[in-house]
Amino acid sequence: MFGRKKKQPEEEYRSPFPKCVRLDSKPHSFCGGCGHPEVLKAFGFAVDELGLQPRVVFGVDIGCSLLSWNFFNLNSVETHHGRTVPVMAGLRRANPEAIAVAYVGDGGAYAIGAGHLLNSAIRNDNILTVVVNNGLYAMTGGQESPTTHPGWKVTTAPYGADEYYIRAPEIIRNVNPTAFVARGITSRQPELRTLMREALQHVVDGRGFAFLEVLSQCPLNWKTMGDPKETFRRLEQDHAKLFPTGRY
Predict the structure, then answer these.
(1) Domains of the chain, each with CATH number or no CATH
(2) I need a surface site. Which of 49, 130, 148, 212 has the fewest CB within 10 A?
(3) Cα–Cα distance between 242 and 209 in angstroms, integer?
(4) Of 117, 98, 99, which Cα lies nearest the Cα of 107?
C-alpha cells in the first residue's frame, strides 16, 4: 500500500558480518535534523557487527533520549530522570551476561545524574554509557544545561549563558584511568561507528566502564531549522572546538 516495500524474510538478509544478528528498527520520532538518529544509527551498526542483539539491554533516560526506548528490537527499559546509569549498573550485576547500555542526554548525565555517573565510573561498573551532548536541554524548550557554551543565548539565559560548563570525558578519565573514554560527533559517522564498536567491545571483554559522549546538533533549539549549513558550522566549529573529539 502506498508503495511500501514488503518486509524481506529473515533468511534473505545478507550481512557482511558473519556473527551478525539482524537488528530491526523503525522510523524515528525525533525532530527534523536532530542528531539522535545518527547516534542511534552508529549504535545499531555496532550491535549488529558484534552480534550482540540477544544480550543487549538498552536503558533510556527521560528527555529526547526516551524517544528511542522502542526504536530497536532490543530488550529495553526507561528509567526516572537521571537514574539510567545506576539502573543499568544494577541490571548488569544481577545478570552478568547482559550488555547494559545507558543512553542519556547531558541533563540526565551531568546535572541530576552527575553523582551516579561519577560513582559508576569510580566503581568501574561494566556498562556502556552514551551521552548525547547538544549544549542545552532540548525536549523542555532549550534551557541552559551543563554543556551550554559561555555566551550562548538560550531560553533561560536570553543575554548569554554563564562561563561554567562541564567536560565529562576529561573528568571520567581522571577518576578511572582504565575506562574506555571517548568523544565523537554525529557529522563523522564512520568515526562514530568505530568508537561505538570499541566502547561496546570494552564491555563485552569485561574490562569495566565505557563512556562515549557524542556531540550532536539540535536545529530546533539552536534556531537553525532550514539552514543546515549554519547547523553544521555550529556543530563542527563551535561545539567541537569547546569539546574536542577523540579517544581520551
Answers:
(1) 30-247 (3.40.50.970)
(2) 49
(3) 24
(4) 117
